[in-house]
Design a protein that fits this description.
There is one protein chain. By secondary structure, the protein is an alpha/beta fold. Helix content is 35%, strand content 18%. The chain has three domains: 1-52 and 130-243 and 357-425, FAD/NAD(P)-binding domain; 248-351, Alpha-Beta Complex (Flavocytochrome C3, Chain A, domain 1), CATH 3.90.700; 438-511, Methane Monooxygenase Hydroxylase, Chain G, domain 1, CATH 1.20.58. Strand 4 (108-110) and strand 5 form a beta hairpin.
Length: 523
């Protein structure tokens, strides 16, 4: 092939806690691993921004109670096998990998005891945290560990374009009689704008979620659901994409892009108030401010509409049970940058698209319906979350399934599996590659994000969803034509992924007439 070609045992696309766990375990098992990330910094995943913490079993906890909390929050449609697996493996893996191997400095209530926080939907204090920067600490520790292993190749500034599958990308017509299989991926070198081919015996999708297809999101702006789009095009089974969880509290400020105010703030006593200073959660749930995320989000939305306000207030200073600056140094410091002193005044907040409870369907080992392809973390759907995710279970899910996927790959690895370089089509470049106009990219993204926010967001109706489908489908045709003619660039690749994911969410929402969890229908 004329383009660059790499071979590896395991290709991991993404490097949040799911991808990092899979890469670390696979490398420890002796396999050659290539990890790619789109951003220049390996730490650019959603994991880095997770503030609250990671679920473990607290000292007065009960596995049965954790199981009940997960299923109740998920509105009863959780996969019971996935819930049992998570509950069973939570504490052993947290203790072994995060505490034992990576030495995560979880916050302590005393020199001899870990501090366990409580968040919405939880019946116990069971969330381990590193103050309010848990994800950042975990991500950095994982990256440090990956860099020390000689059989791991880390490629930053590389964008996944498409999964490489047989027979779809094969030159051999006989391949169409065989079971479809993923054998790697087409990867764009962001610096050179050239597509490389990476052949892998096993590929692990760990691309995170899709919050950035919405106008307001707690996710980084490159969280546009690339893994969902690539897996869908490759023929893997996708489920539950209508269940988009909105985080109730992101900072409301014109200059604050995607800054999350952790639910642990309410766990430590903060109350939600209208812009006029009146508490309101008692009207919506017996759990008041510690109700599940979907209930809190809709309550905030209703109060904003009823009061014609752009935000509500999160009052920690009047109810704090802790030293605010000591417990929430990152939130306190960031809010202060925008002129808000949370030790003296409430925080203006609005809901934001936060987490996709659906995704690429996997089993207890992270295996998808497509041979050779695994998926871990938010891009996957284990069934753990059902219709709505319980707070701080996402980092744990990534750790558990990332580790298990690598163990399954290693246990069933066949070094004799042939690579199919000579039988795979080279990447096609158009004869005349047109330069990309940033104005077109920006306008298309604005259309996608406003359409999803207004028509397929927190509260949905049949008419809104039908309008979203029509508008997005029209835009899809224009973007596909644009993609086929334009020079290869990470922005155009992301746009192609994004429009497909927006339509996947919309179609799933239209197909489900039952209002449940994070899929709320007003009709």
């Amino acid at each position: 092939m004329s383009s660059k070609c790499l071979k590896t045992d395991v290709l991991v696309i993404g490097c949040g806690i799911g991808g990092a766990s899979a890469a670390l375990e696979a490398a420890k098992q002796g396999l050659r691993v290539v990890v790619i990330t789109k951003s220049a910094a390996l730490e650019g995943a959603n994991t880095y921004w997770a503030q609250g913490g990671i679920v473990s079993l607290g000292p007065d906890d009960d596995p049965k109670v954790l199981r009940e909390d997960i299923i109740k929050t998920g509105d009863g449609i959780n996969n019971p096998e996935a819930v049992d697996l998570l509950v069973r493996e939570s504490k052993p893996l947290v203790d072994k990998i995060l505490i034992g191997e990576l030495k995560i400095p979880f916050t302590r209530s005393s020199p001899a005891a870990l501090d366990y926080a409580q968040e919405a939907g939880h019946s116990r204090r069971r969330i381990l945290h590193v103050l309010d920067a848990t994800g950042k600490t975990i991500e950095e520790k994982f990256i440090d560990a990956l860099k020390k292993l000689p059989n791991i190749t880390l490629l930053s500034e590389h964008t996944a374009v498409d999964l490489l599958t047989v027979p779809h990308h094969s030159k051999d017509p006989i391949a169409y009689y065989k079971e479809p299989e993923c054998v790697g991926a087409y990867i764009l070198d962001n610096k050179k704008n050239k597509v490389e081919t990476i052949f892998a015996a096993r590929t692990v999708l760990a691309t995170g979620g899709c919050g950035a297809v919405y106008l307001h999101t707690s996710n980084p702006r490159d969280a546009i659901g690339a893994g969902y789009a690539m897996a869908h095009r490759a023929g893997a089974r996708i489920v539950n994409m209508e269940y988009i969880q909105f985080h109730p509290t992101s900072l409301y400020h014109r200059d604050a892009d995607s800054f999350l105010i952790s639910e642990t703030v309410r766990g430590e006593g903060a109350r939600l108030k209208t812009s006029k200073g009146r508490t309101f959660m008692e009207k919506y749930s017996p759990k008041k401010d510690l109700a599940p995320r979907d209930e809190v989000t809709r309550a905030i939305y209703e109060e904003m509409v009823n009061s014609n306000s752009d935000y509500v207030l999160l009052d920690l200073v009047s109810y704090a049970k802790v030293d605010i600056k000591k417990r929430f140094p990152n939130i306190s410091r960031t809010c202060l940058q925008y002129g808000i002193d949370i030790t003296k005044e409430p925080i203006p907040v609005v809901p934001a698209a936060h987490y996709c409870c659906g995704g690429v369907l996997v089993d207890g080992w992270g295996k998808t319906s497509l041979k050779g392809l695994y998926a871990v973390g938010e891009v996957s759907c284990t069934g753990l979350h059902g219709a709505n995710r319980l707070a701080s279970t996402s980092l744990l899910e990534g750790l558990v399934w990332g580790t298990r996927a690598a163990r399954h790959i290693a246990e069933h690895f066949d070094p004799g599996v042939p690579y199919r370089e000579s039988r795979i089509h080279e990447w096609y470049y158009p004869e005349r590659e047109e330069a990309i106009d940033p104005a077109l990219i920006n306008q298309d993204w604005l259309t996608i994000r406003t359409t999803m926010w207004n028509y397929a967001g927190i509260i949905r109706t049949q008419k809104r969803l039908e309008r979203a489908r029509a508008d997005l489908d029209y835009l899809r045709h224009r973007i596909e034509k644009f993609y086929k003619e334009a020079v290869m660039d990470t922005t155009i690749v992301g746009l192609k992924h994004g429009i497909q994911v927006a339509l996947m969410i919309t179609h799933a929402a239209l197909a489900n007439p039952i209002s449940r969890g994070a899929h709320y229908l007003k009709d």
